Amino acid sequence: MSEDRRRGDRVEINREFRTFEALVEEFVSDVSEQGAFIRTKQPRPVGDEIRFRLAVMDGELETLEGVGVVRRVQDDPPGMAIEFREIAAHSRHVL
Question: What is the CA angle 46-77-81, rounded to 5?
Fold first, then answer.
């Protein structure tokens, strides 16, 4: 199930993937402890705050969730670079 929605001034991204490789291949790249690049044809403007929850079912359910801020938007490949502001304690080992 996939859901992106706007709640107040914060955009929420909620996505599920079968494997961590599928997450990286389809949606997120350049993941580090500082941030990630999210591929999307509808990036949010620079400065928007995004609450995200990315779930991966690869044997065990792993989630990467927290809050980030859009720092850069680009056209090729289309998407946005976000800087992580908060990462849930249970998600730190995923990074």
Answer: 30
